[in-house]
Each structure stands twice: as C-alpha cells, then as structure tokens.
Write a structure and sequence with these properties.
Largest sheet: none
Strand content: under 5%
Oligomer: single chain
Helix content: 40-55%
Distance between the termini: 42 Å
Structural class: mainly alpha
Low-confidence stretches: none
Shape: globular
C-alpha cells in the first residue's frame, strides 16, 4: 500500500488536480535542492516526499487573485 494514501491526501487538498499540481511544483523544488520540510521521509523520490509534506500539513496552497489585466476568456 502506498503512503500516504490518496484518501488521506484528499482531506488536505480538495481536488486531485490541485493535489497533483502542488506536489509536482514542490517535487521540482526538491530536485533543485530545496530545503526539506520534514525530519525524515519514507519515500526516496521527490514526488513521494512532496506528498508526505502535504500529508504532514507542511505544504499548503492558496488560490491567486485575478489582477486587473487578466481575463477568464
């Protein structure tokens, strides 16, 4: 069984798309030698480490505000 499970991660971030997006961005930062946010990890891969950080409430996301020169079209 994978750790952390998708069910437990979905309680932290409300959509699978957002979960994948946040984990991918953090994994890229870890690949570029960003500072780890946890003492130890179960996973050896960067995506797994990012998911563990989300599960431990060390990684969050927020929606950006629309600026005056952006449009939804």
């Amino acid at each position: 069984m994978l750790y952390p499970s998708i069910d437990s991660l979905m309680t932290k971030i409300d959509s699978k798309y957002s979960l994948v997006s946040v984990a991918a961005k953090r994994a890229r930062k870890l690949q570029l030698n960003a500072r780890p946010q946890l003492e130890s990890y179960k996973s050896h891969k960067n995506v797994g480490k990012a998911l563990e950080e989300i599960h431990a409430d060390q990684l969050h996301y927020r929606l950006g505000e629309k600026t005056a020169n952006e449009s939804y079209e």
